[in-house]
């Protein structure tokens, strides 16, 4: 992603430099307008077609680079949003088990699955809670919450240990 950014930044800097040269060239031409028409040659009346084509090409390449960078940023933001939502759903379930406390949580290893479309307001997420009794030692329970999305292609795992 940083190479796209560097490439886009390079094209933007080159196009700005080229436009500055063209603008400076135009200012020099404006200063030369005081000369009589006979003193100027036909080549000094404006920008050449080649200068305009080069400027448009450099500008177009820079804008295409920026478009690619923009789509990458949008995809990254969407992924961040989904990770944040999954983490929040996991924390919510984790707090549920903390509120229940050690003695209220089941005494045998238990797996609870809230499948897709079963979590209200979050139909594209699945939450799996696993309680491992006497882990890592006697008198402790390890609670693992895994939140899946994108058809189980992505997940967030949260884990805590409750003691007597």
Q: Mean pLDDT, nearest integer?
A: 84
- Physical arrangement of strands within the biggest beta sheet: 1-2-3-4
Helical residue percent? 40-55%
Give the ordered list of helices and strands: HHEEEE
Strand tally? 4
User: Structural class of the helix and strand makeup?
Assistant: alpha+beta
Main beta-sheet annotation = 4 strands, antiparallel
Report the uncertain regions.
none
Query: How many helices?
Result: 2
Strand content: 15-25%
- Roughly how many Å is the radius of gyration? 32 Å
Terminal residue distance: 48 Å
Give the overall form: rod-shaped
Q: Compute the number of structural domains.
A: 2
Tell me what you see in this structure.
This protein is of the alpha+beta class and 164 residues long. The protein has two domains: 2-79; 85-163. The chain has two helices and four strands; from the N terminus they run H-H-E-E-E-E. It has a four-stranded antiparallel β-sheet, with helices on one face. Strand 2 and strand 3 (140-149) form a beta hairpin. The longest helix has 52 residues, at 49-100. It is rod-shaped, with a radius of gyration of 32 Å. The chain starts with a helix and ends with a strand. The model has no long low-confidence stretch (mean pLDDT 84).
Nutshell version of this structure?
Helix content is 50%, strand content 21%.
Descriptive key words:
164 residues; alpha+beta; 2 domains; four-stranded antiparallel β-sheet; 4 strands; 21% strand
